[in-house]
Amino acid sequence: MPLNRRTFLRAAAVAGGATAFSGALWQEAFAGPAQPGPGPYGPLLAADANGLRLPEGFTGRVVARSLQRVEGTRHTWHPAPDGGACFADGDGWIYVSNSEVPLVGGASAVRFDAGGRVTSAYRVLSGTTLNCAGGATPWGAWLSCEEHDWGLVYETDPRGVKAARPRPAMGRFKHEAAACDPDRKAVYLTEDQPDGCFYRFTPKTWGDLADGTLDVMVGTGTGPVGWQRVPNPQLWVTPTRAQVSGAMRFDGGEGCYYAGGVCYFTTKGDNRVWAYDAEEGRLDIAYDDDLVTGGEAPLHGVDNLTGAASGDLYVAEDGDDMEINVITPDGVVAPFLQVLGHDESEITGPAFSPDGRRLYFSSQRGESGFVGGTDGFTFEVAGPFRR
């Protein structure tokens, strides 16, 4: 019988053994990618009034609805809420969310006081198109990424004071997400193409993204990888992903998150969570549903992701059964929450408040599933998160 993909990948994972996941979040290394098991928070309970299935001790609420005013403000929340991040703001915080619609996409923000009450909402970026995901910077900016062939990264001010600025030196391509590496003073970028690449932007001056070098990951698969400069990242006839021979291909790059020397990113085409150990220059697989060996794979449609100080990763699903799954540092993957009644939607923008006690995320198309995202929901879940 020919060796199919699932069997081959399982064999490769066993062969890789304990060499995988040498980064800081995976110091408790395990033999192969994450496997199903009991989650750290226990089973999901029955759905609450908002359709959220949560573990014991957690509560949820709706923070905003697309095309409706955010409660207590005069700001109308945007359609198709997508990538998001939280930022400290005095004794409160701000949640920023992209809008994945053409021409008027941009991004908006909600400000919370120390008790979690909404105090204001406002626009931070306008006049851009298909703003999908992005990432937060160490200097407190939100990088909003356009998802089209000539897409740009925009550096925005979560407080809405400074004007947003395009950063063409970071390349023109179908941007998805960004993650900052303050240790190596670089920004990692994913590309949402079936033959997309994984990029690294190194600014000339850390904290100033106006100028720098765009590199693409090169290699032959998991294990040691390298980087090579993209010759023409801004104005091109040949797309950035085709300019470097030997550039690695990733099937639909999605979320991107950096912590402790490791950049984690997802690819939807093969349902993988990757782990790039920047300290070792090594690429491994943190999760792949084809590599699940015991029980049913709980995580499908991998998309946006974020992490907690505990080392847990939280991975949102695009479709499937509308869950956010947690992947623990000891290699267990399990559902953390589920949104019922939003069957034609996707979960986007997971992000923790600065104190780690609240998780924000959206259902991009809501209960109606309308592709224009006019029925989007943005949620908050509070509870005893591991920190």
From TrEMBL:
<dbReference type="InterPro" id="IPR015943">
    <property type="entry name" value="WD40/YVTN_repeat-like_dom_sf"/>
</dbReference>
<dbReference type="InterPro" id="IPR008557">
    <property type="entry name" value="PhoX"/>
</dbReference>
<dbReference type="Pfam" id="PF07676">
    <property type="entry name" value="PD40"/>
</dbReference>
<dbReference type="InterPro" id="IPR006311">
    <property type="entry name" value="TAT_signal"/>
</dbReference>
<dbReference type="InterPro" id="IPR011659">
    <property type="entry name" value="WD40"/>
</dbReference>
<dbReference type="InterPro" id="IPR019546">
    <property type="entry name" value="TAT_signal_bac_arc"/>
</dbReference>
<protein>
    <submittedName>
        <fullName>Alkaline phosphatase PhoX</fullName>
    </submittedName>
</protein>
<dbReference type="Pfam" id="PF05787">
    <property type="entry name" value="PhoX"/>
</dbReference>
